[in-house]
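thought: user wants a sequence for this fold. calling inverse folding tool.
action: design(structure=
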């Protein structure tokens, strides 16, 4: 492999890893507070892409307005999912909440097929992102530069919220102990809703960037990226925000580089992610940056 080809694949790997990282953050935030895997997260990611599509094509919004509207509406949608599917089961066994999460995922997917139709649609990519930067024989789309920057910026803003604000302090308190947080005067239900809202907004940003990078929209779009992001969160240590980002970058880079160096394994690209998940669970189940936590009975 030539050096030019390597850098070409490196830029693709960074972009894909950034997308996984953005979606994985939402998984890890919800798990960090509720100890719940939000299986509907990938479908929330999918909803954002359709909001942009109809915002631009039907309501004739400028692309940047459609992006902002999609992020805000997706955040609200995530809060509604939490209130309808998860909040009524707050004190139920975790298996009940997990079943509800899976049911919410299937419901969103099938409603999307009914509402949006099963035919693929083309994501409206702004002209700016269609441009390509040329470095000698290397051609890198502008999106490959933009996606990692947005991911790292989102991470910095999120860490500031979690570590430096009263809301973030309340999130950390709720993640440690519900009852103690209530005794401190924290509205636990509101904090959980805010967490779902922020996680869903990050999923929306990831969905918009995914549409720019891979502009084919279908109602089942969120299934595989959602699973990959979950794997990324487990690799990094689910419940750890920085770990989710590291896991996303590692998974994205690994997928692209395996295809680059071993083209004959292209058909096994998705299988590799699940093999990696099994290996992590066998040898380091807490993930790269996670901590071993004793489960409360």
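)
observation: tool returned 297 residues.
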């Amino acid at each position: 492999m030539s050096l030019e080809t390597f850098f070409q694949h490196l830029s693709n790997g960074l972009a894909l890893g950034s997308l996984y990282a953005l979606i994985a953050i939402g998984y890890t935030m919800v798990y960090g507070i509720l100890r719940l895997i939000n299986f509907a997260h990938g479908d929330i990611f999918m909803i954002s892409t359709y909001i942009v599509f109809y915002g631009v094509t039907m309501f004739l919004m400028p692309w940047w307005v459609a992006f902002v509207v999609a992020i805000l509406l997706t955040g609200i949608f995530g809060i509604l999912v939490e209130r309808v599917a998860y909040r009524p089961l707050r004190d139920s066994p975790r298996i009940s909440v997990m079943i509800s999460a899976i049911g919410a995922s299937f419901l969103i997917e099938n409603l999307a097929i009914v509402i949006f139709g099963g035919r693929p649609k083309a994501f409206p990519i702004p002209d700016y992102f269609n441009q390509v930067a040329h470095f000698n024989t290397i051609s890198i789309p502008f999106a490959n530069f933009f996606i990692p920057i947005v991911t790292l910026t989102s991470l910095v803003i999120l860490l500031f919220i979690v570590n430096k604000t009263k809301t973030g302090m309340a999130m950390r308190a709720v993640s440690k102990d519900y009852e103690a947080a209530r005794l401190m005067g924290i509205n636990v239900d509101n904090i959980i809703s805010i967490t779902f809202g922020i996680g869903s907004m990050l999923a929306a940003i990831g969905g918009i960037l995914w549409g720019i990078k891979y502009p084919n929209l279908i109602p089942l779009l969120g299934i595989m990226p959602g699973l990959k992001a979950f794997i990324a969160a487990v690799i990094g240590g689910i419940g750890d925000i920085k770990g989710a980002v590291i896991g996303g970058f590692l998974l994205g880079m690994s997928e692209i580089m395996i295809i680059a160096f071993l083209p004959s394994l292209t058909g096994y690209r998705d299988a590799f992610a699940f093999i990696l998940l099994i290996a992590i669970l066998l040898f380091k189940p807490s993930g790269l940056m996670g901590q071993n936590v004793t489960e409360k009975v």
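thought: summarizing for user.
answer: Here is the designed sequence. The mean pLDDT is 91.
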